[in-house]
Specification:
With 270 residues, the protein is α/β, with parallel strands linked by helices. It has 2 domains: 145 residues, Rossmann fold (3-Layer(aba) Sandwich), CATH 3.40.50.1860; 120 residues, Rossmann fold. It is 44% helix and 19% strand. It has 12 helices and 12 strands. It has a 6-stranded parallel beta sheet, with helices on both faces. Strands 8-6-9-10 form a 4-stranded parallel beta sheet, with helices on both faces. Strands 5-7 form a two-stranded parallel sheet. The longest helix has 17 residues. The radius of gyration is 18 Å and the shape is globular.
Length: 270
């Protein structure tokens, strides 16, 4: 079986690249729902329905487990999906866990009561739907106490990245940092809570300043997946094949993906 990665569009390719580097012999299938992107301003029921359909498409392509390489899907759909929809023989994993591990310096299997951690003020940059779901704060509270999270809904940022307008995307990133700074001037750490945002990570880093630790997801998710597959060798396969599926126009999506990653990405119709 391959490992599947699902995103609302192209942002999950940042995670795909990190996973491919960490697990070069593992077959991977990526599905981006570009025809319905972005998810960040949609309601929770629509995100749940779209996410289930995307996961099913990856199962059809021979993928299990599936990584929701999309914070909006992880925030708005993952818990409901796991509790009420997912078959017992399938695994769907989200992207919040590695971030929480990095912030709290605790393994996810550590079920001890919440405790004080070094980071006390966290800036969360995410889509409006992710911010509204408050899943990050809820999961963090299971592991840590006394952490102040200030969330900034980054309207327009995913749209600009998906459109390939990186100048606009970088300007929007700076403006969202400025907006959050008025409410939390001196965060200890900042979380880029959308897999699109690493594409403009430098803009966030420069705007936040050198004192703020910026936590970006791709490498964290890749390391967490590698650990998961070590602990579940029955779900690990070899072969190193790569497939890229899209609900959008394959030629157009391939062109935009190549612009982001600097190399050809051959998408095919889902």
């Amino acid at each position: 079986m391959a490992v599947g990665l699902f995103d609302s569009g192209l942002g999950g390719l940042t995670v795909f690249e990190a996973v491919a580097r960490a697990l070069p012999d593992t077959p991977l299938v990526y599905f981006g729902d570009s025809a319905r992107a972005p998810y960040g301003t949609r309601d929770a029921d629509a995100i749940f329905r779209f996410t289930c359909e995307g996961v099913e498409r990856l199962w059809e392509a021979g993928a299990d487990p599936v990584i929701l390489a999309c914070n909006t899907a992880s925030a708005a759909a993952l818990r409901r999906l796991q509790e009420s929809w997912l078959p017992t023989d399938k695994r769907v994993l989200g992207v919040f866990v590695p971030m929480i591990e990095a912030l709290t310096e605790r393994r996810w299997g550590d079920n001890a009561p919440p405790r004080q951690v070094a980071v006390q003020r966290v800036a969360l940059f995410a889509t409006p739907a992710t911010v509204a779901a408050r899943s990050f704060q809820r999961e963090l509270a299971f592991r840590a106490v006394g952490v102040d999270v200030e969330a900034q809904p980054c309207g327009g940022l995913v749209d600009a990245i998906e459109a390939g307008d990186m100048a606009l995307a970088e300007a929007l990133a700076r403006s969202h940092v400025e907006a959050l700074a008025r409410r939390m001037p001196n965060p200890d750490a900042a979380v880029l809570g959308c897999t699109h945002y690493p594409l403009v990570e430098r803009a966030f880093v420069d705007a936040l300043g050198p004192e703020v630790r910026v936590i970006s997801q791709p490498e964290l998710v890749a390391a967490s997946l590698a650990d998961y597959l070590r602990r579940h060798p029955d779900r690990a396969s070899t072969g190193g094949t790569r497939r890229f599926l899209t609900s959008g126009d394959p030629a157009r999506v391939s062109d935009r993906a190549a612009l982001f990653l600097g190399r050809p990405i051959p998408f095919e119709a889902a």
